[in-house]
Amino acid sequence: MKAWKKLSSTQVVHNKWVKLRKDTVKLPNGIILDDYYLFEKNDVALIVAVDEQNCIILKKEYRYPVNEVLYELPGGMIEEGEDPLETAKRELLEETGNISNDWKQLMCGYDYPTKDTNCVYIFLAKNVKKAANQKLDISENIEMEKVPLQEAVKMCQNNQIKVNGSIAGILLTELALKEGFR
Amino acid sequence: MKAWKKLSSTQVVHNKWVKLRKDTVKLPNGIILDDYYLFEKNDVALIVAVDEQNCIILKKEYRYPVNEVLYELPGGMIEEGEDPLETAKRELLEETGNISNDWKQLMCGYDYPTKDTNCVYIFLAKNVKKAANQKLDISENIEMEKVPLQEAVKMCQNNQIKVNGSIAGILLTELALKEGFR
Prior knowledge:
The structure is a homodimer.
Chain A: E1 5-14, E2 19-26, E3 32-39, E4 44-49, E5 55-63, E6 68-72, E7 75-77, H1 84-96, E8 98-99, E9 102-109, E10 120-126, E11 129-130, E12 142-148, H2 149-157, H3 164-178
Parallel strand pairs in A: 4-10
Antiparallel strand pairs in A: 1-2, 2-3, 4-7, 5-6, 5-12, 8-11, 9-10
Helix pairs in contact in A: 2-3
């Protein structure tokens, strides 16, 4: 399966919040598509933060595009040039006030590679401990809840946790801990 | 946690492929944001198609935005007014030539509700059977592979399957079948 060839590229929208590109591409079968749109989004780091009681930290946040309060894993955008693990440590501290001395990368993948260029890194942080207060942006009205990992798994199964990256992180964590992942 | 209020809305890009909106919104704390960008994407249906040998169908497809061949669940966009389950049945038949007489909805959720308005529906189809040949779009150069469900779970764990919606669907299926989900 061969790569497509980029023939040309136009910035359609390019500002702090949105980078939308339109490429003309040549497919391996020779067909040329002159309007392949891509969203250049920042990479994202998500954290499954597990404490010594085997509880994880869930973020509850209102999401305007879907007009719903959602449970999600803590996390945030990886800044230009930032190491994904450093983002994860920074976001865990800023959003929850917690730190960990035991980090593992669970995966590096994608939400929607059909249109989006960005990666999602998911980290497992064990033995998390409260070390500071939350530090939030002005638009962030978020609450944190600690729930037993097994309850979080059930919340994925009954559609209470419904963001795909968060489901992936929680269920991968359950498998990893069951298998004694170090 | 209260909803944000939309004060005004502008279409920034609006064509067959991209619907990008910019809203001015008022937050519950009174702050006004005049540049909240949203992508109005079509809803999507994904299918975990399990046959009588407990194998699932994985799609292998080149994704231009990330320049990588990826394993994903079969699926596709829900057309305007289409029932998500009908989309799932149509896509399973078109993409894989398979049908099923045993469908269940595993979840309805989101890939990226921070910016995207669309839902992702994931369905479990059991006892799938080959009934026709694939019918693909011109830009689709895809291959189908059947793998045992347990192997697909391992592929999620070792980062070979790396699209969050696909991971969520496969791991939710494993839990559902283990618990005798009907």
